[in-house]
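Run: sequence + biotinyl-5-AMP -> complex structure.
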Amino acid sequence: MNIICLEKVDSTNTYAKTNIEKLADKTIIHTLRQTNGHGRLQRTWIDIGGENLFLSIVLKPSNEYKEVYSNLTQYLSVVLVKLLKEYDINAQIKWPNDVLIDGKKVAGILSESVIQGNNFKGMVIGIGININTDKKDLEKVTDKDATSLSVELNKTVDLKTFLAQLTEGFFSKYDEFLEKGFDYIKKDYINSACFLDKEVCVQMFNEKKSGIAKSVTGKGELVISDSEKEFVLSIGDIL
Ligand code: BT5
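>> structure
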């Protein structure tokens, strides 16, 4: 595992995607300040100030895309929830991969694949985690409740240690995960899920679907049911 630390960058994911040809498999791009972080569907990931983690993991596991890669964000969410337990924080996962503490978002994860023509060049798994912030900084996220580790714990967390623990945690079971797929983490994922058996509304591009969140399939898809039917959703956001 190589780590590239940048003082400031527009987005670690953009940096990793732009330079993917030059970057080795399992390279971590880490920055202290991110000026133009993004989430899914052109949403923004805000650098709220203080000391936070912004990092991207470059992965080049094969020359062609495999279905299991789409579950890597869920795998990372499970790794993070486990690590937070070591800090005495009981975090939850909102499908597919938001990490929340008491309903407030502490981390967001985004996977982007780089494909040129028919060639799969690799993948970039980005994660932003609010670590040491003032309570006031959290108000910069206006459309959602947000939190940080320092606000939850009432103390400062060592950023470098946390980064090392997260990346080590990720790679310790990475090969096994790729071999076995989502089923390998399903139990841990479900145990941390905050949405099951609840009425949810899922936004999928321009369409919304409401129903009871019944279960998660062996491929990490969300099963919801309304009074008439069951639906299996592979992409979307629980609103
Ligand atoms: C995500 O998107 O949650 C994935 C965010 C991934 C960010 C990392 S940082 C390193 C790497 N480089 C990048 O450019 N990106 C990755 P999404 O599910 O679309 O959620 C975005 C929403 O999260 C926003 O619309 C806000 O509601 C909320 N949000 C933005 N910044 C936040 C923050 N600092 N803390 C909590 N919530 C935030």
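>> summary
The CA atoms of residues 132 and 218 lie 36 Å apart. The chain has a mean pLDDT of 96.
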